[in-house]
Amino acid sequence: MGSKKLYIFRHGKSDWKTKYTTDYERPLADRGIEAAKNIGAHLSKIGQIPDYIVSSSAKRCSDTVNLAVVSGGWDSSIKTTRSLYLAGVEETIEVIQTLQVDAKRLMLVTHEPLCSSLVSELCMGANVKFPTASIARLDFKIKDWSEIDSDKGQLAWLLTPKSVFGK
Predict the structure, then answer these.
(1) Domain contains 53
(2) I want to staple 12 with a disulfide (CB 3.0 to 4.6 A). Which of 36, 122, 137, 162 is the partner?
(3) What is the pLDDT of residue 1?
(4) Is residue 158, in this structure, part of any structural domain at all?
(5) Is the pTM of this model over 0.90?
(6) From residue 71, how far is each of 42, 43, 66, 68, 123 by CA, in Å?
(7) In a domain, 166, yes or no
(8) CB 96 within 8 A of CB 79
């Protein structure tokens, strides 16, 4: 039996004061930019770099992942998709199951309430709070991402900007 690691990364704090046309275009606040960079560097420091990343194409998610990748010096492949913008748990699991990638470490960059709902669904009802720029690692005893399903995951850890950096 193989093993896979799924990282669920919530976008950084968004800027509600900046002018934007739609919610989809809402940018990161300064605090969100800093947190995304810090999390990216921290994941590199602890050896938790994803092989492949699927990100919501909403501005705050794509900016979060790009900042984390650059700050952490990751060499990860990135796919952005609008399908994660307003996706539910079932749709997101289907996105994962249909990925044609040979990645042991997969990262999703998305939104609340999807982040906490997905952890709960995949990890037997685990109840987690997901502040902005938080990231959870879920471990699966599977060979292929097509095997991922409800209650098959184990929550390994949840990192928040506050738990890692004190802010």
Answers:
(1) yes
(2) 36
(3) 64
(4) no
(5) yes
(6) 9, 10, 8, 5, 30
(7) no
(8) no
- Taking only the tens place, the pLDDT of each residue in 72-100 is 999 999 999 999 999 999 999 999 999 99
**Distance between CA atoms of residues 99 and 11, nearest Å:** 21
* Residue in 37, 20, 12, 27 with CA at minimum distance from that of residue 110: 12
Do 164 and 32 meet the contact criterion of CB atoms below 8 Å apart? Answer: no
Identify the H or E element spanning 153: strand 153-159
Give the domain range for residue 41: 4-152
Q: Return the DSSP state at 120.
A: H
Alpha helices in 15-159 (DSSP H): 30-45, 59-72, 89-97, 114-122
User: Do 131 and 110 contact (CB within 8 A), yes or no?
Assistant: no
Burial class (CB in 10 A: 0-12, 13-18, 19+), 64: buried
Q: What is the pLDDT of residues 119-156, one digit of tens each?
A: 999 999 889 999 999 999 999 999 999 999 999 999 99
Closest among 117, 107, 123, 48 to 86, alpha carbons compared? 117
Residue 146: which CATH number?
3.40.50.1240
d(CA 28, CA 35): 10
112 burial class (0-12, 13-18, 19+ CB within 10 angstroms)? middle
Q: How far apart are CA 114 and CA 112, in angstroms?
A: 5
